[in-house]
Batch of 2 targets.
Target 1
Amino acid sequence: MSVAEAVQAGTLPGRVWFYSNYHCNLACTYCLTESAPSARRRVLAPATIIELAGQARRLGFTDLGITGGEPFLLPSLPELLTELAQVLPTVVLSNGTLFTEARIARLAPLAGLPLAIQISLDAPDPERNDELRGPENFAKVAAAVPQLVRAGIRVRVATTVEPDRLDEADHARLCELHRSWGVPDEDHLVRPVIRRGRADESGMGVVFDHSQIPAELTITADGSFWSPFGPTVRQGRLDTDLLLTRTVDPLSRPAEALLALVGGLPAGADAQIGIR
Amino acid sequence: MPLVELIDHRSAPLLLRELFGGDDPGPIVGALAQVPELCLVTLPFVGAALGPSHVPLRWKEIAILRTSALLGCRYCVDAHTVVALDAGLAAEEVATLRCERPDTATFTDPVERALVAWIDEVATGRGPVPDHVGAELRRHLDDHTIVELTVTVGATLLLNRFATALCLPSSPATLQRLAAEGFR
């Protein structure tokens, strides 16, 4: 079975993720990659991402994702996103704290393209959100999301919580917030903290086996991984347990390695812990 | 201390999990596992080149231990001293292959004398192997055996430099056995 056939059959997820960089202006308590301002940057060159995105489309993948670190710390990210969204529908993950008026203006070409910015917000009030994500995070997100929506850019809001810690009242308040910002319910994701990286150090999150999470091919400066939850960092050391290959170009090399591994899993084995 | 991190079974990459099988398979695999796709093709090759085959294991161990000693690979000399003893080589023969004796007179079988001379030239020589060394080996061995033993020397050279450059450590069990056999 080819990659394209596997994607069409639903055997292989259609999205390819790229870790654009590992550094971040925040240092969230549950961060998978121990990202922080001082983290080693491990930048994946934009030209490499664009080349591999084209290969992904030719192989039969259907979507792209950019994550980090904080991707918007890269000066050329708006231009990179504009190019990627013309290759395949793209989602970029962000902490939402860097959207100055100047940066939002540079994102204008993205309006109308198949691109979404997925911004993290973990609690409906500044105190609890900022305890996890850093000072003034809530206020910055609350300011950025409506501006992005007004600029014609699709925004998704992602809430990452300890399993079973988000009660109905909090969930309802979060939904009121994102609706008031112009983000519809279908663009609000709630997902569990994963016990890897900094979350593992602090005893947070859900423990999982790789077969319980979608096999979304993930490309980093250090190689390819089973999922964006794979290239995690603990005490400054990259985890290799979900490493596929160090070779990422041609993309067919890690894609075929992933396909071989996925072939051994029963249908529907992923998504058991709702990380999609 | 190894120059690079040796991957253990808890960190084994997905493509290699079966290979690790819940244990740590030693420092060569632990280092190679840093590059799973390379590990996957290297190990079968090394296994075929150094492992059991139609060529007598004794000859293969002569090739491996002698090459390793000539290259000064502490890790491979340690490991294959044990393997050579287990393959039935006498302690005096092992000492000779480890270059601890001034000549190779311990080996009296003309086939093995020709083999050791061939190994010495292949492992340490530059340029062509002298004609008389090759001719003497061909008097005793057929072509496919010569080819395989030459590959054994070549694969050993690869591992010698790999293990030496990366400072791979001998296992405590190997060191204990060497001490018990009087090789430390």
Target 2
Amino acid sequence: MTERDDLKGVNERMRALLARTTHGRDDFEDLVIVPLFAVVVALICGALIMLATAVDLPTIGRSFVALAVGSVGSLSAWSETLTSAIPLVLAGLGLGLGFRAGLFNIGAEGQLLMGGLAAVMAGFALEGLPMVIHLPLTLLIGASVGAAYAAIAGILKATTGAHEVISTIMLNLISFELLNWLLRQPWVQREGRSDPISKSVPDTAALPKLLDFIDPNLRLHAGLFVMLVAVFIVWWLLFRSKLGFAFRASGENPSAANYAGMRAPLIIVLAMATAGALAGLAGANQITGVLGRASPGFSAGIGFDAIAVALLGRSHPVGILFAGILFGGLEAGGRQMQVDAGVSIDLISIIQALIIVFIAAPLLVRAIFPWGFRRPRNGKKGGAA
Amino acid sequence: MDVELRGITKRFGSVVANDNVNLTIRGGEVLGLLGENGAGKSTLMNMLSGLYAPDEGEILIDGKQVAFDGPSDGIEAGIGMVHQHFMLVPVFTVAENVVLGVEPTGQLGSIDMKRARRQVAEINEKYGLHVPPDALIEDLPVGIQQRVEILKVLFRSADVLILDEPTAVLTPQEVREFFGIVSMLKEAGKAIVFITHKLHEILEISDRVSVLRQGRITGEGDPKSLTEADLAEMMVGRPVSFTVDKTVADPGRPMIEMDKVTMLDETGEKVLDRVSMSVRAGEVVGVAGVQGNGQTELVEALSGIEKIASGKIIFDGEDISHATVRERHSLGMAHIPEDRHKSGMVESFTIAENMVLNNYYAPEYSKGWAIDWQKVAETAARFCIDFDVRTPSVFLPGRSLSGGNQQKMVVARELERETKLVIASQPTRGVDVGSIEYIHERLIASRDEGDGVLIVSSELDEIMGLSDRIYVMYDGRIVAEFDNTGGKADRNTIGLAMAGAHEGEGAAA
């Protein structure tokens, strides 16, 4: 059959087949326009909710100004936004990776707590080590403990089929109580305190502040680089490595992955562990970069917000980075809003939730903003039918 | 009721799905609509049923122009479509499914099930459908479920019935009965559009035939004056060969041997019962049988997808009874799975990714722990050329390919490497005529290079045409073996064995 194709023809066909397809407009709409509009609609809905709760118009105006100023309006705003974004992005990367592998891990909160707790212990227990060893080791221990904790859910699923949503929720509850108990143990609890609070992490295990030469109040820390490196590593893992290929295949079509010789139990455990490592790293970052010690509920719901971040970022590392910064900004701006306009910070949670609702319903967003999208019928833009 | 489509054109983006199509459908007549996958049959019928609006052209019902705005308008106008994939609620009864959405209501808006059952029974009687109105859908065989779909359409007083690939899911026996129903409907004056890519069915049942290729009508005529070869040429655009050219096999050493292999399902029932069989190098062995008699499990046991309970599997002298899928694969076993969508490919992955789905870890595609995607893409492009997979680029998702091209992609992945044994399960299911011919050629080529080839197919014609030797499976056992050198096996004897007539005795080998 191929004899009559001369070599030139074959080369030409090869070139055509290998030409990179540009990303279609559909991808662009799906990845950029829908999230963008979702955020806009959520903010508008937030304003309507304020109206409905009898907040007057000038106050609403003031709160949105405060939201903008508090998130991106100054160096200190940026510092706060990024500081809040770091753990969200790290945990979000883990969750996104899990989603890609077909695992709906709800347990980032617990994994983050365990990772943070391990980091605190490694911090004060290994006091005396030089920083170049102590800090990386502390982060590594945090990540490892997060990985091990998530692997429990992975092993349960791989061996018994226990659904990860249920088991990770249960593991979250266990981690909360474990934390409370440990914080009252004499070898963890700070000397001279009766409330549950841990000893402090020494400076050799603390992530250095990046901007304290400008103003000692700027909290941004070197976890920023940990986050950026993690974004790259997760991208590489998912889209370049052999393991990531198996993760994605198992997530998209478990049966085909099985037929292709990939081993589902192994992949489930590895994907859960990787996700847990990232969540644990998020906890360790928060401890060594911001908090310096552990207290009950120090995770502050980051592990749950990270689910939203992973969804908004479409489980893509770069998308998660931007989504995490957006959510960090909402949080930082929300605090400012509370101070300046006296609007409850709960409104920020509502806006975050609305963003997710609109992301999950792209058709709704398309219906609200028809001009942002290509006409589905015949591809002609503009012009009346 | 007569329906006329005039100059219908439909575009999706830059793709022209239908190009100036003219079609007439008359009451009391079966119109066969023939075409390869992706030729535009479904698009055309979706416009007729109101799901899509045409970009150009008009639809006339009894001479009057109509414009549908959604499928409910189509139903209103008396046009009903029976889809290939059933849309039934499994835990509802037949009557409940039929009236769903158009329930006859009594006082206070309660559903008048008594009336519903009576109406269903009337239609049942009138067209000889023989569907028990109170049976649960999940308890009914596929053939009867299909009749429930027809009942649904008739209940909504359709005069034009569009049947989309209705025979794809039916056994030969069910196809007979189905044709009987189609004749009844025809006599009752209904207009029927019968969509298929099976040529002999068109010749058997339709009064007129229209052939679509690449969105255009490429042939029309009276089936009585047409042959399968004529139809195939209209469909593909070139003459198609139905017989597979092959020389007499020259079998060598045994490539795979199964020795008294037993396999159990989750409930502990035997799905394979002491099966012993072999495939030698350089021969094609076919496994015939009515679906559900252990063929799927045989393939799962051979390829390592499922564990066997007892017995032995020897692959080219090596015991692989408990080897993993990947170990068997690296020893040179190729496996074309029976359901490409479910197990053969990942639809959202690019063609390049799909081409290495089970081989991505091989050293030639590796850069350390990473995959060398440039290398993969080049290899995939070469595979696409070698196996005539038609796509503009290897970076498009697998789902963008037509069924035939998807199958060629899977076949390319499995055959484009050093193999010793090729297991092809339903290698041409849902594949167009042109691709079938091509896939058959490649399988025979594998045989001629000295591979053992095992073919499992529900199409007896395919088994008869390709195999040098044929096993028949019945109830989890191999009940007969036939020598098919030069096509000498007897079709009727095989058919009897498939029905279980040869229980316990091996036929002449």
